[in-house]
């Protein structure tokens, strides 16, 4: 591949995409290409344009007006060409089209003025307030971001009526998934929202002070048919001539792995079904590392929600409840038993097939019996149910965006594992739990090519995102201050209650002592009366004897002595 630099100068990037965002257009990147914007490194260029002659320019200032290309790739805008009317975007499209050969293709990568993440953050651009592009004014870099409808109109106005749209997630810089516009129509039950949620990763809403949770919002946004309008960015190919047919619905790049395990997943229409194909990005490298192998399974797309999403829905309503979460996990383990242990009960040491390593909740599609997808790993060593249970629970619990009502501040991953595993019939003592965590750490280290420690200390230090300190839209400092104030108020209230109880207890003790004193006085008085009566009786008996009287005192006199009528 030949590369020529036509102009040297500071680039004016509106975004900084890497090679992944251009994956959908790889078959078209042949012949002569002009790249405007940040220059990919040599390795990236070799990936996305191996058969092309690539020219790069920072601002097009030294580009001869007569030079024409088979394709122009716009990774930035010519802000100095803003004519004050349509803005830098329209001016750049005009400039690029003038440098296309007849039937050439313009490829544009640009952020969305109406992105869901921007709406959640309350700002079009990090560090700036408001949405200048929607308000009809340029941003600080002189550009105005387009909306989906606005960009379509701008391209059509220039005669570029044949368009192929892709939407990168979570952004155009390092997309994990790219969804084609044709995939938004949900052919064959395809769910674009699932890829958008998967690319979002753990929700940063609790710590970023966003107005709402984008991760939770993507599913209803997809159901409403707004995924494309609210996508983070656009990757568009446009031409005056028809574009080649394409049956791909989405491309999934996934999280970064060591080169041996990097793979590309494509979702394509195949008649009445959707084919899911996985291919190695670097087929010349060894397929196994330290005994771990990626199986690269190709399969038919299975429509339906994932079981991990059910946990997130439960946590949004109920928060931390060991019995409720163990019931959810029990359904998952029943599916594991049916699929890999002939329905037998699972114990910590039950041996499972090596391919069951990825039979975790986020790969279980809901249905009458449930079906696992994307079983891509062979660990290379025996897999037991204890390791799978720990792996599945750790992934599900740490991926949950936040835990609403019922959450208790200070809940750790270790707390959750100790509470859940016995309820699932998979009780592990600390030594056994540490062993399973270490196995998972070894696997993660091999796949990522980075040392990843997993142990009891790590689990004890991993806080789960419970409610109160993780409310969506809350400033974390305000949340902490509010929590501290609530704790102080409760302490004062408890101190007042304890003081009131002490006063009541003292009054009750005084009452009991006074009652005891009165009782003692009554008893003493009664005893004195008895003694007086006996003394008088003795005196009367003596007088009767002296005077020769017989018998006891008359009844009336006795009653009188007793104080009764």
Summarize the structure.
The chain is of the alpha+beta class. The chain has helices spanning 42-48, 88-97, 116-121, 148-157, 192-200, 205-208, 214-223, 307-318, 322-340, 385-399, 413-423, 430-448, 456-461, 476-547, 555-562; strands at residues 3-5, 31-36, 52-57, 69-74, 100-111, 162-169, 177-180, 233-239, 248-252, 263-270, 273-280, 288-289, 292-294, 299-300, 351-352, 364-365, 371-372, 377-378, 383-384.
Query: How many individual β-strands?
Result: 19
Structural class: alpha+beta
Shape field: elongated
Instruction: Tell me the span between the first and last alpha carbons.
Output: 132 Å
Largest sheet: 12 strands, mixed
* Fraction in beta strands: 15-25%
Give the strand order of the largest sheet, numbering strands 1, 2, ... along the chain. 1-3-2-4-5-8-6-7-9-10-11-14
Q: Give start-end ranges of low-pLDDT stretches.
A: 1-17, 467-483, 549-553
Mean pLDDT: 81
Q: Using only CA atoms, what is the Rg?
A: 39 Å
* Oligomeric status: single chain
Counting DSSP H or I runs of 4 or more residues, the number of helices is 15
Approximate helicity band: 25-40%
């Amino acid at each position: 591949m030949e590369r020529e630099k036509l102009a040297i100068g500071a680039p004016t990037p509106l975004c900084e995409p890497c090679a992944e965002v251009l994956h959908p257009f790889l078959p078209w990147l042949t012949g002569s290409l002009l790249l405007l914007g940040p220059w990919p490194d040599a390795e990236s260029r070799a990936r996305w344009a191996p058969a092309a002659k690539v020219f790069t320019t920072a601002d097009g200032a030294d580009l001869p007006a007569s030079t024409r290309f088979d394709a122009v790739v716009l990774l930035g805008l010519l802000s100095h060409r803003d004519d004050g009317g349509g803005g830098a975007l329209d001016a750049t499209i005009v400039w690029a089209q003038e440098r296309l050969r007849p039937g050439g293709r313009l490829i544009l990568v640009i952020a969305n003025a109406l992105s869901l993440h921007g709406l959640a953050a309350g700002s079009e651009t990090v560090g700036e307030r408001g949405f200048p592009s929607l308000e009809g004014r340029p941003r600080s870099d002189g550009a105005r971001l387009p909306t989906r409808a606005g960009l379509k109109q701008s391209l059509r106005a220039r005669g570029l009526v044949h368009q192929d749209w892709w939407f990168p997630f979570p952004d155009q810089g390092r997309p994990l998934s790219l969804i084609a516009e044709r995939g938004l129509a949900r052919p064959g039950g395809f769910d674009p929202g699932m890829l958008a949620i998967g690319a979002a990763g753990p929700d940063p809403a609790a710590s970023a002070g966003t107005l709402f949770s984008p991760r939770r919002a993507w599913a209803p946004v997809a159901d409403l048919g707004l995924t494309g309008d609210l996508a983070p960015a656009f990757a568009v190919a446009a031409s005056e001539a028809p574009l080649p047919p394409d049956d791909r619905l989405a491309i999934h790049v996934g999280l970064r792995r060591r080169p041996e395990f990097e793979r590309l997943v494509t979702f394509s229409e195949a008649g009445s079904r959707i084919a899911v194909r996985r291919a190695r990005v670097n087929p010349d490298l060894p397929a196994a590392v330290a005994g771990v192998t990626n199986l690269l399974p190709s399969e038919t797309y299975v429509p339906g929600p994932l079981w991990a999403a059910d946990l997130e829905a439960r946590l949004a309503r109920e928060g931390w409840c060991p019995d409720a979460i163990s019931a959810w996990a029990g359904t998952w383990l029943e599916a594991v038993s049916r699929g890999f242990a002939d329905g037998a009960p699972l114990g910590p040491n039950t041996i499972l097939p090596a391919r069951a390593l990825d039979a975790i909740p986020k790969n279980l599609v809901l249905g009458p019996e449930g079906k696992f997808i994307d079983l891509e790993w062979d660990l290379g060593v025996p897999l037991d149910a204890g390791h799978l249970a720990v792996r599945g629970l750790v992934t599900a619990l740490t991926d949950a965006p936040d835990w609403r009502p019922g959450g208790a501040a200070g809940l750790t991953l270790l707390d959750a594992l100790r509470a859940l595993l016995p309820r699932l019939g998979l009780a592990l003592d600390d030594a056994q739990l540490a062993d399973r965590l270490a196995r998972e750490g070894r696997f993660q280290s091999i796949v990522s090519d980075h040392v990843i420690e997993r142990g009891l200390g790590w689990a004890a230090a991993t806080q789960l995102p419970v409610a109160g300190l993780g409310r969506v839209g809350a400033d974390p400092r305000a949340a902490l201050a509010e929590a501290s104030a609530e704790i102080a108020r409760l302490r004062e209230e408890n101190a007042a209650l304890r003081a009131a109880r002490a006063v009541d207890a003292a009054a009750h003790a005084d009452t009991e002592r006074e009652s005891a004193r009165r009782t003692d006085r009554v008893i003493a008085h009664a005893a004195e009366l008895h003694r007086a009566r006996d003394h008088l009786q003795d005196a009367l008996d003596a007088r009767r004897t002296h005077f020769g009287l017989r018998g006891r005192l008359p009844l009336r006199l006795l009653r009188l002595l007793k104080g009764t009528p």
